[in-house]
Write the structure tokens for this entry.
Amino acid sequence: MYRILEVAHLTESTVRLRTERPRVKILAGQCFNVGVPGSGINREYSMYSAADAPYLDFLIKVVDGGCVSPIFQKLQVGDAVEIDGPYGDFCLKENEIEGQHFVFLATGTGIAPFHSFALTYPTLSYTVLHGIREPNEQYGSEDFRRESYIPCISKNYLDRTSIRITDYIYSNPISANSIVYLCGNRNMIVDALEILREQGVPGDNLITEVFF
Amino acid sequence: MRVAISYPPIINKYGQKAMVSQNRNVQFFKKPTYLLPVTHAQATTWLRDLGHDVLWDDGNAQLKSYDQWFSDLINWQPEVIVFESTTPVMKFYWRTVNQVKERLPDCIVVMTGYHSMRKPEETMAESLTDIVLRSSHVDFALARLIPFISTNPSWRLTCNLEGLLIRMKGIELRSTGNFRQVEPLERSPLVDRDLVQWNNYAFENGNFLQTPGTYATSVIRDCMFGKCTFCRYNGSDLTFSMMPVERSLDEYENLINNFGVKEIFDDSGVWYRGREARQFAQGIIDRGLNKKGCYFGINTRFEYLDEETIKLMGKANFRFVLLGYEAADDETLQRLNKGYQLQHVESCLKWMTKYGLHPHLTIMVGYYWQTQEQLDKTVAEVKRLMLSGLARTLQVTLCTPLDYTAYHQECIKEGVLLTQDYDDFDMSKLIVKTPVPHDRYYGAVRDMYSVAFHPRFIFRQLQFLLKFRKRDWQFLFTYGLRAIRRVRQHIFNLTRNEGTPAAYALPTKNVKY
């Protein structure tokens, strides 16, 4: 059991949970199975915090009609959660971290592993494209280098026209020698892969993690 | 083009046939069990839809001898033959490829499957295979590849479709890089049941509670979790793809109304969970498909389905639920990256049995670290779950490193593999060094299966059957007899090496492959 240290309601349907950290080695980009004690169910969430932070942060998107995330939304500081992991290898290769430019494509809470990358490796060279519906979904944008974070907001607001990640990369081709990580919505990933392949990014440079 | 999707009959020295079983594992059985290879069936349907002349060539399910199968295939004169590889039959496949190429030198042989996708160069070196397809999305890959080949005579030089290893000349190979990990499953056609002769797979399958049964076009490809070290659906290059709920419901409706199936099993890596699981179960009810006498079965994980969802699934006529239990000790679950906690097993099983579902546990023994204490704990816990009625049926296998999964690679790294001969990887014997003699694990297999003959278990089964809304006593006899036959067969297969001098610390055989 791990206690909740902080709860931040970032939007009506997104919450950031900060929990105690298990005493295990964790790599940025890995995920954990997080469950509500006694409920008998869990879900995988990518870590949002730095790999060496003394706590774990998770970004939770509350799924309408879901069984786990609505419970997480109601948790309070001091409540406990079950945490199992870490798992997975949606991680940066140690030998590529220096001298390589990365492109991170995320939708919604799929930004979590990239946020973890940015915090864990401060000198990392990257561009992150964050596909969101509303401007208030730019979770943790202040933790990315300003010039490296590009929000792609699909809803019109103020004087800005809507744009999706796929529109952006179509108009601003990705360099063929970039290593591209994609995380989040399946449809975005499928469409983006199509465009990236047409732009000559080799399959070996495309790494994906589907959230839903 | 003329494309054959081929599964040759493979018979071992005991006269047993290689059958594709759970998790695409190949096991040899005397009594048949025929599982429809769903992704390859989708590929066949898609190629036919694209105008190619396709041959669904499952020599096993079509009850052919090897010679008959081979001669029929050669006579059909395919331009492309697609095989599916897995470790224990690799040597057989390499020989078969070479025989085919001897008779049909211009025929293009494409090797698919989880073994060759992990070791593509090996298959190229050991056989005359033309293309190793490194993608698990065989349908998407072939739907791009075959049209390209048919319109580009110099395809070996020019084809850049991702996920291929292509033979250029002799030993010269060309890789087109990693495959596309995520594909929109809704674009792959639903399986054309007539094209793949669905009836051949409708009866001989131990997982069906009723027949005719069939496999649904999987709603998930690979696995949502995808981290278990022993599983094929795990790896940094694999990630799950999902089909929309409504499309899957349409298929179920078609199978029930137009094919009269009585059971539909979805053997996706892991079936829907959460919102999609509820939407699906509700969709079955809304369409009245729960009133048609058809049972639905799925493959899921502990801690994936909550009580409310399970209740809805019970109402929708779900029955068979396959759950990977693997072992009853925390160390093993952690080493396997199973991602669930033992403390939740009981509540999950209670919900399932409460709402009339039929939990089927899959267990493995013989992990290279498994101590006597861990083994005893697993046996005791499995027996407790079975005798208390929390699980209805079980399947025990010997944990065999296969297809260069993380577990397989770990066994190589740790130096615990006792053989490099792929023929030994058929799950009929332990092939890793273990802390206690192998006979103890074989004994544990026998011990767990013997639960089926325990009076308390039989009483629980009868009690369970009485709860069925459909009081079909025929079910008791048909399924019961099949279950006994399967239990006997599993015990024979998994314990026939008991007492042999295949000690647990034999030196590694020097035979490569």
